[in-house]
Amino acid sequence: MRNDAAGLLLPAARPGTCLADVAPGWLSVAHDALRCPDTAADRAAQPPLSGVIGERSFEAHPSVRADGTVVWWLVDDTDHRLVREALHMERERTAFLAKVSSMLLSSLNLGRCMDVTAQMAADNLADAALVIAPAQGPQLPVVTCLRGGHPVLSHESVDPDDVPGLGEALRGFPPVPSRWIDPAAAPEWMVPEGFGPIGSIVVTPLPGHGVPAGALVLLRRSQTAAFTEGEEVFARLFAARAGAAMSAARLYAEQASITEILMRELLPPSLHQISGVDFAGGYRPSMDHDRVGGDFYDVHPAVVDGEASLVALGDVCGKGLEAAVLTGKIRNTLHALLPLADDHQRMISLLNTALLNSHHTRFATLVLASAVRKGNAVDLRLTSAGHPRPLILRASGAVEEARTHGTLVGALPNVPTHTAALTLAPGESCVLYTDGITEAKGGPMGGTQFGDERLQRALSECAGMPSESIVERIQMLASQWVGDGSHDDMAVVVISAPRTRHLSAVNGHTRGRFTA
Amino acid sequence: MTMMPSARLRLTTVDTEATVRIELRGDLDYDNADRLLAAVTGQLAGRPRLEHLHLHCAGLGTVDSMGLSVLLMIHRRTGEAGVRLHLDDRTARLDRLLTITGTLEHLTASPNGAASSPAGAGESPKNSAEARAARPTGPDGTT
């Protein structure tokens, strides 16, 4: 027996024919199993049968009638199944895109991003993929990857405008859709060696953050199916993620190179003895690796022997490039003002004028120190412009604050300062430092500032030590205090009058009579 | 009275026509000093008849160089607008920072040149009267 719908579905199944002859195998097997009483008992527990008849798929629900015959209700679930498959594919694609994003964003290296993009595209979207970056000079960087292979970088001296769609994709503007190109028109460099005949080829732009990130070229062999519309949309989603990652990597590379150039320019000099005065300096930049520090120091030896050398140590407000630019400005200005180094107040006023700006109140605090050897002692003039006072370490171990004070530079129209003059006996030192040391947070409980008192106590134990050892000692103590915690820039400069031994020298009271 | 919720810096504004008081609680540092500047700039722009800006500093934690920079900028802006800036109830730490950097007098001097009362000494009777007269404002007082 059959109803009309069954007649359409299984036209061969007329009453009286054997089921196995007219119905698909999966249905007749189930039918036979159902007539066996053992399995019939637990049939309710089984999931509904399903199978394909012709081009559509069906769920089959049997109901056994009292006379032992079975009625099969066939329910068409083709659409349901298609939706499920689409959902499954969508989930796979989403998972793939998430994987793409996490793999690409874990690297800020442009070359690595191109490699990952090419490899993932080749393995998931096509038989081979090319990632082409915007030209650097006359050459196009191209990463090629075959499915299952490794990405290979090459540089092609070609004109991208020769390939339809590629020039526009690399310029990034105006935005262009993916473009199919005639496989026969693909230039030789686009086809990986041993790839075979190309079936389809599509060029997709990689959109970046306002800058073109490059283009993605997908190739399929002629025996592989061409791209469906869904696959093309998917390729564009992939390209959007890859482009974002590549342009982020490019911007990062630019920033990193700017930072590196500035850092090289801003690194403090290595110090040594100049004209009978010992100078030592140490600088520990903040752990924020990609940030240029705001601390600086310089030592400018006297042009004429017997005149004072000038030390400048300071701390610029803020972080990053803006702080770095301000630091560079201050160091250059002070260098230019060296002929006026005798007059600290004038130097600081002129520096202040040079830095004043109506747009912001970014400032710097600094200490100027003029040091000159007089006999076996060192005469010092110290001026603080809003900076923590220098500490004087006497031979006895006493630590004094230099009596200088003044106003920070770069924010206020007037910057009055008061200069302190003092003398260092042999073995005595003057310590200039930035607040990165005293404000370093750490200690046994964490979160406690290193503080002025602790610094002064530590210094008093350094009495008589050479300048370099004092710098090392302070840096070590501050580092230990901070432990693994983060800290600001820390800079220290120590100016010392060298311990001297009287020489059985021949004549006069010149500096040559003593050794440092 | 309006609040700006923030983990690190909370600004509470109470104002009258001629006086704005902003209570600072938390750190005034690199990460959030700009918010105070924006709040003050907004008050200056929105209140042409403003005469006094009180920043209550008793609840201030760390003030770093960016925080000080913003205080200097606020002083500059209030000066340009003819508004008197008061840093009230300064903590010892804030006073120390202002002293070392040589900015205490600049930031606390009255227009006739004399420095205002030192930290912790509280407000003058006139300021207290203003405080009593201060009325809470609605959302229009949002900073």
- Give the amount of beta strand of chain A, in percent: 25-35%
The major sheet of chain A is characterized as: 6 strands, antiparallel
Tell me the CATH superfamily of chain B: STAS domain
- CATH secondary-structure class of chain B: Alpha Beta
Measured between the Cα atoms of the first and last residue of chain A, the distance is 119 Å
Question: Could you give a short description of this structure?
Answer:
The complex is a heterodimer of chains A (516) and B (143). Chain A has 516 residues and is of the alpha+beta class.
What is the secondary structure topology, with strand pairs?
The complex is a heterodimer of chains A (516) and B (143).
Chain A (H helix, E strand, L loop, with lengths): L3 H6 L9 H4 L2 H11 L1 H5 L7 E5 L2 E9 L5 E7 L1 H28 L4 H15 L3 E5 L7 E7 L5 E5 L9 H6 L7 E2 L17 E9 L7 E8 L7 H38 L11 E7 L10 E6 L8 E8 L3 H17 L7 H12 L8 E11 L2 E9 L5 E3 L5 E3 L3 E2 L10 E8 L4 E5 L1 H4 L2 E2 L5 E2 L1 H10 L6 H16 L7 E7 L4 E2 L11 E2 L1
Antiparallel strand pairs in A: 1-2, 2-3, 4-5, 4-9, 5-6, 7-8, 8-9, 10-22, 11-12, 12-13, 13-14, 14-18, 15-16, 15-19, 17-18, 19-22, 20-21, 23-24
Chain B lengths: L1 E2 L5 E7 L3 E10 L4 H14 L5 E12 L1 H16 L3 E5 L3 H9 L3 H5 L16 H9 L10
Parallel strand pairs in B: 3-4, 4-5
Antiparallel strand pairs in B: 1-2, 2-3
Protein name (chain B): STAS domain-containing protein
Organism (chain B): Streptantibioticus silvisoli
Pfam families (chain B): STAS_2
3D architecture notes:
Chain A: One of its GO terms (molecular function) is protein serine/threonine phosphatase activity. Chain A: It holds the Pfam family SpoIIE. The complex is a heterodimer of chains A (516) and B (143). With 516 residues, chain A is of the alpha+beta class. Chain A folds into 3 domains: 73 residues, no CATH class; 171 residues, Beta-Lactamase (2-Layer Sandwich), CATH 3.30.450; 248 residues, 4-Layer Sandwich (Phosphatase 2c, domain 1). In chain A, 33% of the residues lie in helices and 26% in strands. Chain A has 13 helices and 24 strands. In chain A, strands 6-5-4-9-8-7 form a 6-stranded antiparallel sheet. In chain A, a hairpin with a 2-residue loop joins strand 1 and strand 2. In chain A, helix 5 packs parallel to helix 8. The longest helix of chain A is centred in the middle third of the chain and has 38 residues. The N and C termini of chain A lie far apart (119 Å). The C terminus of chain A is likely disordered. Chain B is of the alpha/beta class. Chain B has one domain: STAS domain (Transcription Regulator spoIIAA, 2-Layer Sandwich). Helix content of chain B is 37%, strand content 25%. Chain B is built from 5 helices and 5 strands. A 5-stranded mixed sheet of chain B has the order 1-2-3-4-5. In chain B, helix 1 runs parallel beside helix 2. The chains are: A alpha+beta (516), B alpha/beta (143). Chains A and B meet through strand 17 of A and helix 2 of B.
